[in-house]
Amino acid sequence: MASPQQQQSVKDSVTETSGNPPAPKPGAALKLTARDVNFFYGAFQALYDISLDIPANKVTAFIGPSGCGKSTFLRTMNRMNETIRNTRVEGELKLDNEDLFSMDVTDVRRRVGMVFQKSNPFPKTIFDNVAYGLRVNGIKKSSIVSAAVEQSLKRAALWNEVKDKLQKPASALSGGQQQRLCIARALAVEPEVLLLDEPCSALDPIATLKIEELLFQIKDITTIVIVTHNMQQAARLADFTGFFFMGKLIEMDVTKKIFQNPGKKETEDYVTGRFG
Amino acid sequence: MMEISATRRFVNTFMLSLSGVCTVAVVSVLFFILGYLLFHGAASLNWDFFTKLPKPSGETGGGMANAIVGSGKVLLLATLIGVPIGFLAGVFLAEYSGKTFAFLIRYVVDLLNGVPSIVIGIVAYALVVRPMKHYSTLAGGVALGIMMIPIAVRTTEEFLRAVPNSIREGAMALGATKAKTVFTVVIPAAISGLVSGMMLNLARVAGETAPLLFTALGNQFWSAGWLAPIATLPVMIYNYAISPEEDLHQQAWAAGFVLLALVLIINVTARLIIARGASAQRR
Lengths: 276, 283
What we know:
heterodimer, A: 10 strands, B: mainly alpha
């Protein structure tokens, strides 16, 4: 973690982004908008005045060094941070122009799905894992549930590997399969936004490739926001990329621009590997 | 140099043998008790022992069917009282309470666990026997139920805390409420540990005698119901052991063997459930 002094100097050196988000082209449909979001773990401020727009049906990537707030910001977008004691959020987040913080929290999380860094299948069967989200949201009819399970597993490119062992425990799958199962589980409730927090960091390149391919395929049905440490991954996948540094959003733009002609020196230093 | 080395070698061998002998002693205590009980009680361990009522004083033979069933009934009541209360308190402790509050609850629960069983018997006497004006199965169940609560709380807390937090987050990220997450994901994930923990808890109170002496009291016949006195194995052992008749001593030995066997069976079953649960997690 950076010392407060360092934080301060960075804060000073970066021009204010609030009120004037480095948004995608005007006219693009916006799924999520953030204005001046601050976040605190107790007395520690983890996010400073984050303002940005997430365009619908695109892949948006957040890059930046460890501890820079990208995951924290991701977890504010489905209000997952509220499960951590002694945290506080300020500012405005809107989903389809509706205030995220006045919506019912379970509703937010159903509409904004999340896949975690480490795959976290429930100790249940493969089928029950994917069906879980439907069941807790009140969908019990078995024909609907099994149709949705099949569709989600197909979208997550896992169906062919598991269709004969749906009643086996999810823990019997390999690491990459488990992560795709978690994606299928998230897709089953048909989220409008899918947040992925470094979903491939524990996977080998082949499993990573499979997940990238499937993310590409589901862009038409959901808006994707992905946090990644892997800059190549961001470059391959994302339509837009935001660079976080020390709790601030330094720059956000079309991915190509971020990697080839960034507007800020910090971004350039990071994407060219001069630090981080 | 040789001198020191020889001394050290001797000390090493000596200590190793000593700890080995102690280990053997520890293990053999159980088998010694089992063998001793069997040796003295074997003559009374027959079909009659499990099916007949005790014979009137002076006559030989008879059995302890009423005490075996009685122990079962009292333990069933104790489970119905102690497990739900302890379990739900444990769920609160593990999933809902804040740090300071949890510390306080845990401390109180540990104190409760340290309350001598005879004191808990007096409490059950005051709470149930006195108002109802007679000894009863219910009073015995309440006494043992209270004894089960602290371990039930702590086992539940321990096994729920062992469930990784990532699973809770996974469920909540799908729109599950906190309560749904706990009851449909966290508890099922810990179920084998919870069940076996409760069984070990039951085995622990199965041999309690003191709290039953003035709650369930004892009975030479079949109990007249949940609100009447009832015979239990531990109290029967106590009564027979202090009687002057040799035949009753032998029956007490047999009852001791049956009680110990019961506890061992519950114990081994619980361990098997834990082991199976653990291997299912690994798969």
